[in-house]
Amino acid sequence: MNGVTGRMGMNQHLIRSILAIREQGGIAVAGGDPIWPEPLLVGRSESKLRALASAHGLERWTTDLDAALAEPEYEVYFDAQLTSARPPAVEAAIAAGKHVYCEKPVTPGVESALVLARAARDAGVKVGVVQDKLFLPGLVKLRRLVESGFFGRIIAARGEFGYWVYPGPDPKPQRPSWNYRREDGGGIVSDMFPHWRYVLDNVFGPVRSVCATAATHIPARVDEAGAAYDATAEDAAYAMFEIEGGAIVQMNSSWCVRVHRDELFELQVDGTHGSAVAGLRECAVQPAVTTPKSIWNPDLPDPVAHRAQWTEVPATEPPENGFKLQWEAFLRHVVLDEPFPWDFLEGARGVQLAELGEQSWRERRWVDVPELAL
Ligand SMILES: NC(=O)c1ccc[n+]([C@@H]2O[C@H](COP(=O)([O-])OP(=O)(O)OC[C@H]3O[C@@H](n4cnc5c(N)ncnc54)[C@H](O)[C@@H]3O)[C@@H](O)[C@H]2O)c1
User: Fold this and answer.
1) Quick one: pLDDT at residue 177?
2) Which of 11, 167, 304, 371 has the fewest CB atoms within 10 Å, i.e. is most exposed?
3) Which DSSP category does 230 fall into?
4) Which residues line ligand 1 (CB under 6 A)?
């Protein structure tokens, strides 16, 4: 597991996924021994790795990736490094015959993503990319609504993702500084559009076109060491996506917005037969038959308590961490050959949407999304 001293690697992947799987006794296999993940932590800092390993009762860590890849008993390479560091490490892991699971975006560019996808195919190793939002309870409920036909014809959707990221020094910024430096692979388009690609493709249907603009609203920030730096990457993106069949999705992604919502991500979907607002965990609906009558009259307080007219969609499963669920699916894919659709080609599609979004922003126009194949 490379990059586990980072925010995602440590919290979501090591602690809440791999260690949580060990705490539950592994991944149950019908009629067989459970799948038991045995992590070898890889990183650049001896002291951080030693501290992390000892905090969690783990014995194996190294700063030598090549030596780790040469160990035959480790079958899977996982990468949560910053994105720009990922391609050479994943390439080396594939060459060493490892199955590979990694964070999104799979690589900084679509071409390098396809190169890795082809290398994995040719080497016969199994690969996967994190698509965590698909496993969020709120989006699972939304998908269920779509599949049940609740919406009738989906007209449009409107998503708000984001929160205020402190520029520093005080309060301390809660995201890594490379996110705000283009030269280090930062920028909210390359960060968020890969998520929007798999969310839209899987919930509504294939994304066919994108129109986006973006901006660096806060031009100077303070880094982890307290030093000021120029923000060279965009910190907000405003996009429209056209879905096959004609639905329009607007999506705001911003680290410069203060939250007046129930959750840090919310997506309102309007259809001819009903509407829904899905968040990370919750999802509320208003069917056509209970839609109240609205009459425009700014001279009087609105007589309708609009939010009170919505109904919560109940959870059918106890909520589970989405990263852990996807880890379990990937490990079952590796060990039991169960299907796992979120491979490097899927990852490349996410990177493709980010690249086309940047092109749209640069050229100030709609850009179509061509089919991507190996
Ligand atoms: N799935 C999601 O929702 C989600 C959310 C945030 C980030 N991510 C992705 O996860 C990856 C890691 O993001 P993060 O927020 O954890 O970043 P982070 O800065 O907290 O961690 C980066 C990790 O990469 C390592 N690293 C290797 N080479 C490095 C270098 N040259 N400079 C700096 N760090 C280096 C660091 O040691 C650290 O372990 C990125 O690819 C990012 O796009 C995914």
Assistant:
1) 98
2) 371
3) E
4) 3, 5-9, 43-44, 80-83, 85, 103-105, 130, 132, 176, 178, 191
